[in-house]
Design a protein that fits this description.
It is built from 7 helices and 2 strands; from the N terminus they run ααβααααβα. The chain is mainly α. A two-stranded antiparallel ribbon has the order 1-2.
Length: 244
Amino acid sequence: MSGLVVPTILYLYRHVYQLTGIKPKKPIYSWKSIYHFITGILLATVLASLGFIIASFQGWIIIEQWHAPNQWFTALLINMGIAILYEALPEELALRGMVYDVLRHRFVAWLAVLFQTLLFLSIPIAVNQVQAIVGLAPGNSINISYILVILCFGICLQLLRLWTRSIWTTMGFHLTYLEISRFAISQNGYDVPPMVTYHDSILGLGGLFIVSMIIIGGIIVSLFILSLKRFIWKNSNSTHSSLS
C-alpha cells in the first residue's frame, strides 16, 4: 500500500503547492520533524496508561496478569511493521496531509477538519461495501459506536497535526493506538497472550473507557495546546502593536 500511495502523494503535493501558492520551508512530512513520531507514541502511551489506571481504580476492570514481553513482543513488532505500511503511513500522508491541505485552501480550518474526518469515515464503509459485493466477509462491523470512534479518531489525528505541524506525530499516535488496541485492550487476537489480562466488571466498559481516554484525551490535549499557542500569539501581537 505504502509503495503505491506514498510516491503518488509526494508527486501530487507539488500540484498542491501550485494550487495554494504556498510552499512551506519545512513540509509536514519532512524528515527533520521525525522526532514528532516519538511525540505521538508517548502521548498515546501516556493516555492509555492513564485509562488503565483510572479504570482499575474505579473497579471497571480487574487486572489479573501482566504477561512477559517474550510472549507477545515478536507478534507486536510484526504487526507494527504491517500497520505502519498499510494503515498509519498511507492514511496520514494522504488524509491528514494532502487532503487536509487541499480542503484548508478552500475552507476554514474547522470545516477542513470535519470534511477530512468524514472522508476518513467513508473509507472503511466503502471497503465493507466492496467486500460484501464480491462475497467476502466484512473486515469491520459498521455500527454507531464504530462510527463515533472513527469520527473522534479522525478529529484527534488532525488536531495533532495542527499543533505539531507534522504528520509524523499523527503516524506515531495512530500506530500506538492500533497496537494498544490489539495487544492490550483486546483480549483475544494474534494467537499470543495480550500484554495484560483483565476482565470488565461491566461488559465492555473498561475497554471503551480506555479507548475514549486515548482519543478524547488526545483531542483535549491538542485543543489546549492550540488555544495556548493562539493566546501566546495574540499577546505577542498586542505587545508589538503597543510598542510601535
